[in-house]
Amino acid sequence: MEPSFDITLQMVIVVLAGISAQVLAAYLKLPSIVLLLLLGILLGPDGIGILHPHGLGTGLEVIVALATAIILFEGGLKLDLRELGRVSVSLQLLVTLGTLITLVGGSMAAHWLGEFPWNIAFLYASIVVVTGPTVIGPLLKQINVDRQVATLLEGEGVLIDPVGAILAYVVLDTILNSDTEPVDAIMGLLMRLAVGGAIGGAGGYLMSWIFKRAQVLSFELKNLVVLAMLWGLFTLAQVIRSESGVMTTVVAGVVFANSSVPEERLLRSFKNQLTILSVSVLFILLAADLSIASVLALGWGSLFTVLVLMFVVRPINILLCTWQSNLNWRQKLFLCWIAPRGIVSASVASLFAISLTQRGINGGDAIKALVFLTIIMTVVCQGLTAGWVVKLLRITSQDATGAVIVGCNPLSLLIARFFQERGESVVMIDTDPECFAQAEAQNLRVIASSALDGEVLEEAGIASVGTFLAMTNNGEVNYVLAQRAAEEFSPPRVLAVFPRDPQAGNSTHSKVEQAFVSDFTIKTWNEYVNDGRVKLGTTTLNEKEFVHQQEHIQEKIKAGLLVPLLVEREERLRIMAANQEWEIGDRLIYILYDSRPNLLKRLSGASQSTPLALEQLPEIEDLPVAKLSQLSISDATSN
Length: 639
Known about the structure:
Blueprint lengths: L2 H26 L3 H12 L15 H19 L3 H6 L1 H8 L1 H16 L5 H10 L5 H11 L3 H30 L5 H32 L5 H22 L4 H13 L6 H25 L3 H5 L3 H22 L7 H9 L5 H16 L5 H30 L9 E4 L3 H12 L4 E5 L5 H6 L3 E4 L5 H6 L7 E4 L4 H15 L3 E4 L16 E2 L7 H10 L2 E7 L5 H13 L3 E8 L2 E4 L11 E7 L4 H6 L10 E2 L2 H4 L3 H14 L1
Protein name: Sodium/hydrogen exchanger
Pfam family, one: TrkA_N
Subcellular location: Cell membrane
């Protein structure tokens, strides 16, 4: 068989195996890296022997370098500077102090437990400083974790990759050139970061300029221009200062993504597809090139090294870096558990093994084996259990509390009061200063501005709340506000008061839910509340009368006499959606129209200024006689 065809066959098998693993992982809802590693090892020399990555020669290093550039650029595209600003201090500490903690802790564990020489121990620790953005991203989508935690993990994964990769190269350079002074090593690290950042920043700006101004280019061609420029910037940085290209690709992605580029979503889709292909190819190749015998030869000391990295070093890292943050203990505990290593660690370890072997330095294969052991243990243990841990700690995005309410009126104040009484944060947004006095009297925070301004929503804390509700008197405006909030900030629950058929609002793909009931006339019900023509009631749906309770309440709703506002389920309070399906045990909170004349109410002692009291109302609790007889008949039949 000709060498060229042999290489072609190898690459075809790699691509087929990688994509098959991705498809199977999506079907089984498993982290794709788990199947990629297993399949790569199975196809490699230690398995059935179909793949022989060493046959690619220096081509393997070329594939690793160019694919890593795509992966890191795509990671930079995902970083939103506005979101990072909310966790900036913790993120800065994770990338700086956290890197130092992992480097020192990991090297101590590798030396004392794994019995590696200090220089090789430091090299191992520098490689596993990085977490895996290509593992973190799909994992976070799968488990649907709290947004603040997700932002921190994504930011750490992307930003620490270039820092860790460059740090690893500096450590390797120090080992290969044993006469290197510590000061020179530190200066080399800073110089690579500076050169990579400068080239990446300028290149990212140029890419965005081309995307905005080059109207003669088709969109497809623009995508390819960005890819060509990315590889060009990566190579330029490598020529000016070796190993600075990884920093260039991340910075270029961040600058490009935050330059308000039109059609950016389509570019992200294209780059995401390239990233999936790159990750699939790299993991299959690198796993196939792994010697199982070298992993087994490591011994128990190396296993304990990885365990210390996971259960001692990582928790210390998180506790120190998030000490002054507003994260609660459940969020911090989850961050302690999640730190899977990924493709960058595998790529760097494989290249370092080659470099050390070529220079006649022992430990290259052992380093590679220990890094892959770290990848396997962290990905399998943490990746497979992340969903269970999130649910146990109750930090899914659906568990987020608090609300941002647009529209300060009697009904919205009533809803805000319930959230406030449960200790959840509530922020109201309105442009009418006349409404502020009532809100401030209830110690509610009000922002006097337009919710169309994204910065106002950020100030209100929309990124960390569980619910966004738009309920001004203008239904069309409510829908537009809610749609924009859903697209830009993605709160777990987005509701709005809008007409039955708002413009483009009947899309089945819309993330905006209609609040309360269909055809809700908010202006009329606000007048009812102001005039004291409503009662505030609560009822709990029980198993015995569940069907008849629903029918009874729906009759009141259709008659325009009742509006369900909130539902309490499993001790969680949620704003009622028009399409909400009720369950046994739900506690409904509603307002009921009271048609008694105002004069009669005043004579009976009711006052407009008196806060509505939550009570069980006989109009709802007492079922009609006909239905009660049906209940008794059904009971007798069952007996």
